[in-house]
Amino acid sequence: MNFQQLRSVREAQRRGFNLTEVAQALHTSQPGVSRQIRELEDELGIELFVRVGKRLTGLTEPGEQVLPVIERLLQEAENLKRASDDFASAGSGRLRIAATHSQARYALPPAVRDFRAHHPDVSLHLQQGSPQQIARLLLDGEADVGIATEALAQYPELVALPCYRWTHAVVVPPGHPLLDGQPLTLARLAQFPIITYEPGYTGRSHIDEAFAAAQIAPHIVLSAMDADVIKTYVELGLGVGIVASIAFDDERDRHLRALDARHLFADNMTRLAVRRSAYLRDYIYAFIQTFAPPLDREAVDAARHQGPEPDAGGPVLAWSKAA
To answer: Which of 144, 158, 214, 282 satisfies CB 3.0 to 4.6 Å to 273 for a cystine?
Structure first.
């Protein structure tokens, strides 16, 4: 039994049993992947995959039982490598961060700047995606840290640490009727076409819940993953925007005006997640505390050892643009 055999089995499941994609991911040949899988099956004395001819179509019942063990073995091998790297190359390495568009654009830059100033030998790799994609990258070991507002706390294999609360704002062009000084309400807002986030992004669920609770059906004419896209179409006059308050800057967005909407929609929580079983190198702890100062090494380790408690409390910051 060797790690290449284990990786071949894991990738076969991850890649939908497409051995061509498995071979590409492992930088080998398709016959080589098939041989590695067969050799492991022969050694274990069981078939891990259902086959139709030479094609893999799924996992057998023994395969379903064995795959989690393979995952743990490969994760521990990765942890062993990281632990040795901490001693062999202290202060240098690679940090892989996965974040949603809003977090990458507005929340991360100050933390990345400050982290780089103190850890110049660590290379940063930033990946963007949906909260579900970020969770998958963490679970697959392809990201070290994930940052998003929604979804991360739903995975027991991850520890999702609360970082800071933030609210929404309504953005409109200068001279818009909503700037008449009258109170901003959901009913007034619903009189105009609305541009906001895609479902599953940046607190969209709280927007939908507020309108549903008021029994108002908003006319959402456009949805996007990125606040900059939303603001662009608001400038074009296509509708009223609802964005994260952190995404509005008076100087940068001088062609727009913002209205505080915290009284209309529930607060949102940005969370930072790591895989519960991962070995965290020293500079990963340092980055986490740079992003959310209350989350020092002791707080992170305590949360990781508590067991899956998605909604557990913890140190929480209110968002500040000076952060």
So the answer is: 158
Residues 9 and 74 grouped into a single domain: yes
Contact status, residue 157 vs residue 136, Cβ threshold 8 Å: no
Q: How many structural domains are present in the chain?
A: 3
Paired tokens of 211: 């309108």
Pairing of strands 317-318, 158-166: parallel
Q: What is the pTM of this model?
A: 0.69
Q: Which residues pair with 93 in a beta bridge?
A: 122
97 in a structural domain: yes
- Spell out the residues 6+ positions from residue 4 whose beta carbon is closer than 8 angstroms to its own: 26, 36
Predicted confidence (pLDDT) per residue in 267-307, tens digit: 999 999 999 988 889 999 999 999 999 999 999 999 988 86
Residue 147 CA to residue 154 CA, distance in Å, equals 14
Q: Report the C-alpha dihedral over residues 27, 32, 34, 39, rounded to 10 degrees.
A: -120
Residue 198, both tokens:
């895609």
pLDDT tens for 228-265 read 999 999 999 999 999 999 999 999 999 999 999 999 99
